[in-house]
Write a structure and sequence with these properties.
With 259 residues, the chain is mainly α. 61% of the residues lie in helices and 6% in strands.
């Protein structure tokens, strides 16, 4: 009979960067379907040592008995196949399932990169904020590496995501347009984007919007505070007040399970 240690070793392992909103999407999905797992968080750059060993290049990566899944949408479909009917991530009706999958893909393609770029424009270089966001729960040697290599890490992130003034302005327009579209859809879709129950579309929207809403019920992300740059705080409050912002914050408050 397998003992507790054997069962723990058989659990899927989720490789993450703690604050990554794409990692939060998959973390939330795992929690939502109730699948026991072990999270293995890593500091940016150091995460590549873990993902490379599992066949990926970035995070999230879910290492399961069946193999490694290196895309958040693939992970959610894997979880949906193991979810109860009450915790399904995609509707069982094929047409509605396609709608939910299309919304999820759109949020991944547009909102996710825009929210990341916009947030980094204001916070890249903020040592205290990024220590919490990047280092929570990571191995000690990686946290030491963060302290020693912080300037280099920020420069590499800057090159990868280009959080320039022009980039941040375009990102803000994309976020605003997405929020308006979500608000309009909520008027006619029922209480959730996919209908009467939460779906992959809902948790994807809320998770990927987290960098521009800073939900109090987020398991990792620093909350809205007086330490934020004034322009960033003003925009966060404006987005929070929109129907889409209220929707995402309520998903965190009532469905995420961290409040």
């Amino acid at each position: 009979m397998p003992n507790q240690t054997d069962r723990a070793r058989s659990r899927p392992q989720l490789l993450t960067i703690p604050v990554s909103h794409f990692c939060e999407k998959t973390r939330w999905a795992l929690d939502w379907v109730g699948l026991a797992y072990e999270e293995r968080p890593h500091v940016p750059l150091f995460h590549r040592l873990a993902t490379r060993a599992s066949g990926g290049t970035s995070v999230p990566v879910l290492v399961a008995a069946e193999g490694s899944l290196t895309d958040s949408r693939d992970i959610l479909h894997y979880l949906d196949a193991r979810a109860s009917s009450e915790r399904a991530l995609y509707p069982r009706d094929p047409e509605r399932a396609r709608e939910v999958a299309a919304l999820e893909a759109w949020f991944d393609r547009e909102l996710g990169p825009a929210a990341r770029r916009w947030a980094y424009y204001y916070q890249l270089g903020d040592h205290a904020t990024l220590r919490q966001a990047w280092c929570m729960g990571t191995p000690r040697w990686e946290r030491v590496g963060f302290e020693l290599g912080f300037p280099l890490m920020c420069e590499l992130v800057r090159r990868a995501y280009r959080p320039t003034p022009a980039g941040a302005s375009a990102a803000r327009d994309c976020i605003q347009s997405t929020f308006e579209t979500v608000g309009e859809r909520l008027n006619g879709s029922g209480p959730y984007l996919g209908g009467e129950t939460p779906s992959a579309a809902d948790l994807t929207f809320a998770a990927l919007a987290a960098p521009v809403l800073l939900p109090e019920c987020h398991p990792v992300m620093p909350p809205l505070s007086d330490r934020l740059p004034a322009a960033m705080a003003t925009a966060v409050r404006q987005w929070r007040a929109t129907p889409a912002g209220q929707f995402a914050l309520n998903l965190y408050r009532y469905q995420r399970g961290w409040c």
